[in-house]
């Protein structure tokens, strides 16, 4: 089986690493999977890209498209053109895409138009906000996919409501396997103790989503809330390159206990999450990781596709209003850390690989 995988952003590198481990295990057991990795270059900053390949042991890209940033239509169009040429030349048996980025949609559309079956990892997620580019990408990708690998029962139910039932499999969450692999190595990231940071006595914040960074009012409110929080407890922000570029124009005065640091490698990021008193984020992946690690979370978005993270008040989804954010942060800090949640499945990657091998063996490519 020839498997062509499309990645382009940090969460996809993580998921692809877990699937890569499962492919290696399957080949060691006698399977014959030839894996081709295409990196679109959507995350082109070295700290957001290459370092993850190196740390996670992810195979080097067979094709690095170097697309970079740009308006959604232009970026997706460039990816679509390049990926189509690769699929046409390589003729894979399956094109595997992850999540909800422009790389995901471009890979799925290119494959579908060339009649190559698509496997979508994290299928069925819905925020029910079609103004989000990610939501549009998710929905369109699901509707052209042959295999829909869902992380939760809720995702399966979402697809059923849209009339999609064939090819749907609840395999569990592939990212959970990496948290299990790296979560036990908890220690403060390198250099943080020198800043006076102590385990379980700081807030970790990540802000990168376009709905926040492209709206000056929302970004000001979020950073203002974090600055107010820093008057009470240190706040660490591994700052996304997109957000970093916007700070000078905001002319904000940031207090000394609000520390802006470089993006972290995966293992150190998991350690930073696991050692935090609280996580504030607009990232879907970080919401999940905090949930699995028993760390309370506040999400600076108006909705989340990860409904399960809100169980027991573990994740408060409050938008970008400064006062609501500060109130939610104080509420979660007063509540304290949670116990580790029960997770029913931790074999998502191997389940996906097994399904693809089984269906490829019987030529089951019809939707």
Oligomer type = single chain
Task: Round the mean pLDDT to the nearest integer and report it.
Answer: 91
Output the CATH homologous superfamily of the largest domain: Glycogen Phosphorylase B
Strand order of the largest sheet: 3-2-1-4-5-6-7
Low-confidence stretches: none
Based on the coordinates given, report the CATH architecture of the largest domain: 3-Layer(aba) Sandwich
Instruction: Give the SSE string.
Output: EHEHEHEHEHEHEHEHHEHEHEHEEHH
CATH topology of the largest domain: Rossmann fold
Distance between the termini: 18 Å
Based on secondary structure, the structural category is alpha/beta
What's the Cα radius of gyration? 20 Å
Number of helices: 14
Name the beta content range. 5-15%
What is this structure, in a nutshell?
This protein has 367 residues and is of the alpha/beta class. The protein contains 14 helices and 13 strands. Strand 1, helix 1 and strand 2 form a beta-alpha-beta unit.
Q: What are the main properties of this structure?
A:
367 residues; alpha/beta; Rossmann fold; 2 domains; seven-stranded parallel beta sheet; 14 helices
Strand and helix map with partners:
Elements: E1 2-7, H1 10-28, E2 34-39, H2 50-56, E3 63-64, H3 72-90, E4 94-98, H4 102-113, E5 118-121, H5 133-143, E6 147-150, H6 153-161, E7 168-170, H7 174-182, E8 203-206, H8 210-213, H9 216-230, E9 235-238, H10 241-250, E10 258-261, H11 266-275, E11 278-281, H12 284-293, E12 297-299, E13 315-317, H13 322-335, H14 348-361
Parallel strand pairs: 1-2, 1-4, 2-3, 4-5, 5-6, 6-7, 8-9, 8-11, 9-10, 11-12, 12-13
């Amino acid at each position: 089986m020839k498997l062509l995988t499309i990645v382009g952003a940090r969460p996809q590198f993580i998921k692809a690493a877990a699937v890569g481990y499962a492919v290696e295990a399957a080949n060691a057991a006698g399977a014959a999977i030839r894996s081709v990795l295409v990196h679109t270059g959507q995350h082109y900053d070295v700290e957001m890209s290459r370092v993850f390949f190196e740390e996670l042991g992810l195979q080097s890209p067979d094709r690095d498209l170097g697309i970079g940033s740009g308006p959604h239509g232009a970026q997706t169009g460039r990816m679509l053109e390049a990926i189509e040429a690769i699929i046409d030349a390589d003729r894979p048996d399956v094109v595997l895409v992850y999540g909800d980025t422009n790389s995901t949609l471009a890979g799925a559309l290119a494959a579908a138009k060339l009649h190559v079956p698509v496997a979508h990892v994290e299928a069925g997620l819905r925020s029910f906000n079609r103004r989000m580019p990610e939501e549009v990408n998710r929905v369109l990708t699901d509707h052209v996919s042959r295999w829909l690998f869902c992380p939760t029962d809720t995702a399966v139910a979402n697809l059923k409501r849209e009339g999609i039932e064939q090819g749907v499999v609840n395999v569990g969450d592939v990212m959970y396997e990496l948290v299990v692999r790296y979560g036990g190595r908890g220690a403060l990231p390198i250099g943080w103790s020198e800043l006076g940071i102590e385990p379980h006595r700081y807030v970790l914040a990540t802000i990168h989503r376009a709905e926040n960074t492209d709206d000056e009012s929302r970004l000001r409110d979020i950073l203002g809330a974090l600055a107010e929080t820093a008057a009470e407890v240190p706040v660490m922000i591994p700052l996304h390159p997109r957000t970093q570029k916007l700070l000078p124009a905001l002319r904000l005065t940031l207090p000394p206990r609000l520390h802006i640091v470089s993006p972290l490698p995966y293992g150190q990021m998991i350690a930073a999450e696991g050692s935090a008193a609280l996580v504030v984020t607009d990232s879907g992946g970080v919401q999940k990781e905090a949930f699995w690690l028993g760390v309370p979370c506040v999400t600076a978005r108006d909705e989340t596709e990860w409904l399960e993270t809100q169980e027991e008040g573990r994740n408060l989804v409050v938008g970008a209003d400064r006062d609501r954010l500060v109130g939610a942060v104080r509420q979660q800090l007063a509540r304290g850390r949670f116990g580790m949640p029960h997770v029913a499945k931790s074999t998502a990657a191997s389940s996906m690989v097994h399904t693809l091998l089984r269906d490829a063996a019987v030529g089951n490519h019809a939707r």
